[in-house]
Amino acid sequence: MTKLTLPQERRQPCEIWTRVMGYHRPVHAFNRGKQAEYRERQPFTEPKPTAHA
Known about the structure:
It comes from Thiopseudomonas alkaliphila. This is Oxidoreductase. InterPro entries: NrdD. The structure is a single chain. The chain is an alpha+beta fold. It has a domain at about 15-40. It has one helix at about 30-40, and strands at about 15-20, 25. Strand 1 and strand 2 form a beta hairpin. The longest helix is centred in the C-terminal third of the chain and has 9 residues, at about 30-40.
């Protein structure tokens, strides 16, 4: 597999949006408390339901 690289001058920042208090907002616009809360979040995957016999 080849490694893709992009020159620094062609790179651009990635803006991350998430839902807080019912509204979608960019993470950089959060206050300090919400930014800290966002960094502490733990992603999870809900287990698939099992079939009952």
